[in-house]
C-alpha cells in the first residue's frame, strides 16, 4: 500500500471549505492527492466561496495555487482561515492529479492501484446512494467501490439535514460494508470562535482516520498538543 497516495472526491453537497482545507493539509503533509470533482461540486464551490476549480487537465501547481488562493480569499478570511501553523508560506510538499468523472483509465479505478485511503468530502446523498448500491456509474463511485472491495479506508462526509430513512439505511449499509460515515458535525468542546474552527474540527477527524498528523485542533483532555508525523 502506498502511504502517500490519497484519493479525494468532492461532490455536490454543501461544504466546499471542508474539501479545500483537507486538501491543503494533505498537500502540506506531502501526500500525493488524486482528485475527482463532480460537476455539481463546481457549482457549489462557486456559490459558497466565489471561486472556481481548475480544469481537470490543469497542472498540480494550478490546483495548489487555487487552494491557497481561495483559503486566503475574502470569504475564507472572514471565516477566520489563516496559513497553516508552521508553514511559513512554504509551498506544498505533495502533488495533485485531477481526473474527470468519466475517466475510467485513471489508476484509482482499479484495485491494483494502491492508496492509503479515499475520502468523499463533502458527500452528496446521491453519491452515497450510488455507492451503497454498487452503481459505479462514474469515477467517484467506482473508486469508492474499489476501496470497499480492497478493504481500504473509505471515509464519507455527508452534509444533509434532516435525514430520510432511505439516507439513514444507505449509511448503515455502507457502514456494514466497511466505510466510515463521518457527517460534518463539529464539536464545541474546543471553544470555537470562528467558522474556520468548526471546519478544522471536522477536517481533523478525517485526518485522524487517515492517520495523517496535524495540529488543527486541541484534543479532549489537552493531550497530543503536537501531532506532527
What does the secondary structure layout of this molecule look like, with pairings?
Blueprint: E1 5-10, H1 16-28, E2 32-37, H2 39-49, H3 60-71, H4 74-78, E3 95-99, E4 117-123, H5 125-132, H6 139-149, E5 154-158, H7 165-177, E6 180-181, H8 195-210
Parallel strand pairs: 1-2, 1-4, 2-3, 4-5, 5-6
Helix pairs in contact: 1-3, 1-8, 5-7
What does this 3D model show about the protein?
With 229 residues, the chain is of the alpha/beta class. The chain has a single domain, classed as 3-Layer(aba) Sandwich (Rossmann fold). The chain has 8 helices and 6 strands; from the N terminus they run βαβαααββααβαβα. It has helices spanning 16-28, 39-49, 60-71, 74-78, 125-132, 139-149, 165-177, 195-210; strands at 5-10, 32-37, 95-99, 117-123, 154-158, 180-181. The protein has a 6-stranded parallel sheet with strand order 3-2-1-4-5-6, with helices on both faces. β1, α1 and β2 (32-37) form a beta-alpha-beta unit. α1 packs across α3, α1 (16-28) crosses α8 (195-210) and α5 (125-132) packs across α7 (165-177). The radius of gyration is 17 Å and the shape is globular. The chain starts with a strand and ends in a 19-residue tail after the last helix. The relative contact order is 0.18. The model has no long low-confidence stretch (mean pLDDT 92).
